[in-house]
Amino acid sequence: MKLLSLCLGLTLVWAHEEGNHEVVTSNFDVPKISGEWYTILLGSDVKKRIEENSVMRIFMEHIQGWDNSSLTFKFHVKIDGECIDISGLCDQAAEDGVYNVIYAGFDTFRIVEVVYSDYIIFHLISFNNEQTFQMMALFAREPDVSPKLKKKFVEICQKYGITEENIVDLTKVDRCLHARGRQLSQASSAK
Ligand SMILES: *[C@@H]1O[C@H](CO)[C@@H](O)[C@H](O)[C@H]1NC(C)=O
Fold it and tell me: Which of the four pLDDT bands, split at 50, 70 and 90, describes residue 189?
């Protein structure tokens, strides 16, 4: 009996671990996206959008996924050496995993895939006066990820026509890590 319950316990642990690492590409469980995230790689067909001093070079800190599928983002951008706190709410559009937001133009973005405990990939199209461009982002729960996952991201970017030269690895630059947590206290003091 003891052995049986031990086996059952192991099966449950195994199933749980399996479930955690499942790649989800539709029917997103948005609240599970909640928590801390780090920007790992960004790619764009207009590279200057993800280079230094661009407002699209975003350093993700935290995402809150609400029961109604809205998302609240907290991230930093670095302009002239200064880390700036930005946060905002995005409501889901009619389609599953698709969001619209006004940020440096009109942006529509979509969750491409997610492993809730590991990483999330977004694809964004930005429409503004200057030029329409697309951007892909890989965010992870930890400050860095495996080379295998980075390679997978590069391949996904290529499917969208973003070449490897147009992908930046932000684990090698200052991602405003020292500014993390800062905006939380500001947000609560503003209430
Ligand atoms: C979804 O829920 C969040 C958090 O309660 C709220 O701020 C937001 O306005 C809601 N969005 C819609 C479309 O109801």
Answer: very low
Substitution candidate for ligand 1 out of 33, 89, 90, 92 with most atoms within 8 A of CB: 89
Residue 89 alpha carbon, nearest atom of ligand 1: 7
pTM (predicted TM-score): 0.86
Determine the 3-state secondary structure of 21 from DSSP.
coil
pLDDT tens profile 71-109: 999 999 999 999 999 999 999 998 889 999 999 889 999
Tokens standing for residue 189: 């003091």
Place of tokens 């996924």: 65
Ligand 1 centroid to Cα of residue 64, in Å, is: 11
DSSP character at residue 24: B
Q: Give, for 155, the enclosing helix (H) or strand (E).
A: helix 147-159
- Positive or negative, the Cα torsion across 94, 21, 64, 67? positive
Tell me the β-bridge partners of 42.
Answer: 137, 168
